[in-house]
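hey
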């Protein structure tokens, strides 16, 4: 084993509260069943599985607490999501305090309010957000009120105080330390905010025109000066033809090889200090295909090589 490598700590975050389609709470089990721990151990890592962080099921967060009215907007499961993300935040913060590399298995993408918030306690953190969606809505702009479409906005300090101040007061990351890759489905309010803040964002058109390698190089250069980099991999960033088991599939995504190339280039940068893998829905999958692909992408990110 390469003793210079950090110990890896896996945590399940079976969040099924941030959206209305059920099933992503089974994502951690699907990833474990696909052999994540063994695959990473074969790369020479010391891998520990810390089990699942306690997250309420939607049935437990029903009734009056299921909906919070804020102005003209209604937000679903606000208090339950906040409580779960507080626990995720604490697990992430403890892990990076020990110089370990945490891997969080979602669950929907609202878990990132806890994962990114927690790992950023160790210092300024860049984020590579790989997703078909920007997840940059706030309650004022969201058409649905689903919190899995809002984590990134709250991490940069926009939105509800209950979520902006989760774990500690204020924004957790600088919007200029974020790179979004794979975008192809945005709401109008998200477009306006991304432009207003001047955030680095690459759509699928950018990838089609310029190639994934050029986009990845620019992304790596953009975050190169930061001491920590978190990779947030939403499996709906990939095309549904290769990753069918996701919560909100969108046609026209990354190919199998484009996704692996991105992970391989990020691995060569040696910048990754934490990871989450989210939005796997085994109910919609074919023979655990999406989870198995996610395991191989995680392996590529953490040093697997073709030759």
């Amino acid at each position: 084993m390469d003793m210079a490598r950090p110990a890896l700590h896996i945590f399940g975050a079976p969040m099924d509260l941030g959206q209305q389609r059920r099933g992503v709470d089974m994502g951690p089990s699907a990833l474990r069943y696909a052999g994540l721990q063994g695959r990473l151990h074969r790369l020479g890592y010391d891998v520990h599985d810390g089990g699942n962080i306690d997250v309420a099921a939607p049935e437990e967060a029903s009734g009056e607490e299921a909906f919070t009215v804020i102005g003209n907007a209604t937000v679903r499961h606000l208090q339950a999501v906040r409580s779960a993300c507080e626990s995720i935040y604490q697990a992430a913060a403890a892990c990076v305090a020990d110089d370990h590399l945490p891997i969080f298995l979602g669950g929907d993408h609202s878990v990132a309010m806890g994962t990114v918030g927690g790992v950023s306690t160790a210092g300024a953190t860049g984020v590579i957000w790989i997703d078909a969606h920007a997840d940059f809505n706030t309650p004022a702009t969201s058409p649905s009120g689903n919190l899995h479409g809002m984590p990134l906005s709250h991490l940069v300090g926009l939105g509800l105080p209950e979520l902006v101040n989760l774990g500690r007061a204020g924004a957790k990351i600088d919007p200029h330390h974020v790179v979004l890759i794979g975008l192809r489905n945005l709401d109008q309010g998200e477009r306006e905010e991304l432009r207003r803040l001047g955030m680095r964002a690459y759509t699928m058109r950018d990838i089609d025109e310029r190639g994934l390698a050029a986009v990845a190089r620019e992304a790596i250069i953009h975050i190169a000066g930061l001491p920590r980099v978190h990779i947030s991999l939403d499996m709906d960033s990939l095309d549904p033809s290769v990753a069918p088991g996701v919560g909100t599939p969108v046609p026209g995504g990354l190919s199998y090889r484009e996704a692996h190339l991105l992970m391989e280039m990020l691995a060569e940068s040696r910048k990754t200090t934490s990871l989450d893998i989210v939005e796997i829905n085994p109910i919609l999958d074919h023979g655990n295909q999406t989870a198995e692909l996610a395991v191989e992408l995680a392996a590529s990110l953490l040093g697997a090589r073709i030759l």
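The first helix runs from residue 27 to 33. The two ends are 19 Å apart (CA to CA).
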